[in-house]
Every structure is written in structure tokens, then in C-alpha cells.
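Researcher: I'm preparing a figure for a lab meeting and need a structural model of a single chain. I don't have an experimental structure, so a prediction will have to do for now. The sequence is pasted below. Please return the structure as C-alpha cells so I can convert it later.
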Amino acid sequence: MVRHLLLLTAVLCMGLAGCASKPDTKQQEGNQQIMQLQANAERAYKMAMLDQAESLYFEVLASVPNYAPAWFRLGNIYTRTGRHDAAIAAYSKNLEFQPDNQKAFYNISLVRIKQSTETLAAATKHGDVNSPIGKQIQALLDALNQLQREPNKSDQQTQAAL
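Model: Understood. Here is the structure written out cell by cell.
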């Protein structure tokens, strides 16, 4: 969180550096408000108040649309609330501004696995499950479910990425 606040402060300071030598009180107050919004969003996120966190991150992004950590957190919020397409869009937006963020790539892949699992589960309810493709669907679904159940380090890594 401190790193995110430092990044937000740096972005805001760069905007101030281009201003006239006189301090612009309104600009400084606006920057402080954005930093407070970010801190409130982070607090709500950590307390699992995801609707509130989402609204606050959108307020931050209204002022600083290229603030990558807010896009990443929105991706996490959408993942946790089952809004997979929105999660992928938010993680992708994060990657526009932070192209080396491996966590965003990893989280996109986790969301895609969840989407694939849901699609295959739906497919098992249609058609002949004993047909060759029905058997392939079930085998792939079983493999994805097993992958998501692995009780080893991957669970801890998955939670750490989110």
C-alpha cells in the first residue's frame, strides 16, 4: 500500500512540476483528496467492502486514469465477485500502464481457467456425455477442477497474487 501511495504521490507531483512557481492551493488540495480517496479505497478493499472499494477506485481513476494499481485492484474485485470479463478488462488496463506486472498476467490466466471451467460445466449438461466429445469435455473439466484444487504452494501463490 505504501508503494502504491508513493506512486500516486509521484504521479501527482509530476503534474505539479509543470505548474507555475506559485503553489496552486486548489491543485494541492485536489492531490490530497485523491491520495485520501486511494487510502480509503485500499482500506475498504482490505476490509472486503468491495462495493465501496470499487466506487472509490473509480473516483481515483476519474482524476488519475493511468494509475495502474487501481486497475489491478478493480480486476481483483471483479474476480472475487464473479465478473470475469470485467476482471480481464481491468487487468488488461493495468498492463497498459504497468506492462511488466506478472501478477496481472497470472490473474488473467486464473480468470480464464474459471471461465473455461464454467463453460465446460455448462457443456456437460447438454448433449451426450458418452459421445467422444462429451468424454473429452468431461476429461478437460476434471483436469481443470483438479488444477484448481491442488492443496500445495499454488493455493498460497494464488491468494498472494490476488
